[in-house]
Amino acid sequence: MKVLVLGANGRIARLVIERLLKDKNNSLLLYLKNTDRLSSYADDPRVQLVDGDVLDTDKLTKTIEANELDAVYSSVGGIDLAEQTESIIHSMDANGLKRLVFISASGAHHEIPGKFGQWNEEAIADYLPGFRKSAESLEGSDLNYTIIRPAWLTDKDEIDYELTGRNEAFKGTEVSRKSVADLVVKALSDPDEYSYKV
């Protein structure tokens, strides 16, 4: 498959890139600000680097149009995540590209109970509105989405996680980036299993 990776220099994104490139049938379009940060991939024939901002909807739309893509993986974030998400939805819709795997955050649906939920709300209060608006926009779109809501991230060298659905109380407090990357790769590789999942 050919995957567009948005926010390709992110720590989870880098793990996903490594995993996807282990399969010789995969090719990647890495979209990020300042492609020099991923110059190690410049000579890989299965990798294209695009210097761009997701908020530049025209450029993102043209990038998707110029490539035959199977899926998009978004690892973007920030205070303006809702605006970035609208740009992604518009660019994909304009090109008839449907499959999106999207990194969100725990608490995006008010799904964390108890004191940890309260602490989480306070800890990422500036970012939660963007996560919540993004989830609302994605769920209201016609994209075939998988929205991943990881707990607090660690750099533990392990793959160990459990999934909770959209209407289930959130379980756990932390998860390794390797675990999140594992789920991203599974969701990209088996869209039927993970379609329209939050």
Automatic annotation (TrEMBL):
Pfam families: NAD_binding_10. It comes from the Bacteria. Residues 7-191 form the NAD(P)-binding domain. Coiled coil: none annotated. This is NAD-dependent dehydratase. It comes from Oenococcus alcoholitolerans. The lineage of its organism: Bacteria, Bacillati, Bacillota, Bacilli, Lactobacillales.
